[in-house]
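Need residues for this backbone.
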């Protein structure tokens, strides 16, 4: 029996036991509060594929999901499973998990005073924000391809370029639908304020998805985004990760980094809503 005060030390893949039985009633209440708040806000703002994943996986309000039980449903749909990790893990560990269809989800939940914003991912960001999109077969394939690409980028000392692709799609991506722009990025759908700002504020720029432009564009981690990139569909993401990125990295290394708020001459901004 592990002494209570000892926190489990993760193995080389940083996987730990979720500790589901250790969650307190208050932690489940924080989940319920976040869930109900986002359910209201995301009705006409989240992409249909996100909402389909949320309901298809049975991710519900009643409390923090049980990773193993949720993984059994997810695996039947797209072959992905969720593994519990204590927080951000080293890049190579992260990419190896994604390349093997394992999504590393943080097992702790934020405190009441972090309800509106916290910098590092918690279980609400990872499970509510990321896992529903893994129910979509094309997006599920994209994220595995991203993991494989990450392991290659590490070898080519080109990780920052690929991290931008993850940031501006998986975390902060928007998708065009017949009803207008919708959100599929996890960093947005798990944030009350940014779910509204991303679609309705005049402040951020919105540009069409462009792989090299994204990999050349810096991003900020401490506030709402200055720019969003819009895809027409998830197969656009999957197709974009097909080619060998080696030549892209070589040319990107010779180009200046584009600051997040910039729109270059000739670029056509996408109108909000
Ligand atoms: N670790 N647990 C976790 N979750 C992430 O989203 C994550 C990570 N480590 C590295 C990382 N993301 C990014 O730096 C890579 O996408 C580049
Ligand atoms: Fe995330």
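Answer:
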């Amino acid at each position: 029996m592990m002494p209570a005060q000892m926190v489990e030390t993760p193995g080389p893949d940083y996987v730990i036991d979720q500790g589901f039985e250790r969650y307190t009633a208050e932690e489940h209440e924080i989940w319920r509060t976040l869930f109900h708040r986002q359910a209201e806000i995301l009705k006409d703002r989240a992409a249909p594929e996100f909402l389909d994943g949320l309901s298809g996986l049975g991710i519900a309000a009643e409390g923090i999901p049980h990773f193993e039980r949720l993984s059994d449903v997810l695996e039947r749909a797209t072959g992905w499973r969720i593994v519990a990790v204590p927080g951000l893990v080293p890049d190579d560990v992260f990419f190896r998990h994604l390349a093997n269809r394992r999504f590393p989800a943080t097992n702790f939940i934020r405190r009441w005073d972090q309800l509106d914003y916290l910098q590092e991912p918690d279980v609400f960001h990872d499970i509510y924000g990321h896992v529903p999109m893994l129910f979509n077969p094309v997006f599920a394939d994209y994220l595995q391809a991203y993991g494989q690409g990450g392991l290659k980028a590490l070898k080519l000392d080109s990780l920052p370029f690929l991290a931008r692709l993850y940031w501006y799609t998986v975390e902060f991506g928007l998708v065009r639908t017949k009803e207008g722009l919708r959100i599929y990025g996890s960093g947005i759908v798990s944030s009350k304020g940014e779910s509204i700002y991303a679609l309705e504020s005049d402040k951020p720029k919105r540009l069409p998805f462009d792989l090299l432009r994204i990999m050349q564009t810096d991003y900020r981690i401490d506030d709402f985004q200055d720019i969003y990139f819009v895809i027409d569909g998830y197969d656009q993401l999957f197709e974009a990760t097909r080619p060998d990125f080696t030549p892209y990295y070589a040319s990107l290394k010779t180009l200046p980094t584009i600051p997040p708020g910039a729109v270059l001459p000739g670029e056509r901004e996408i109108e909000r809503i």
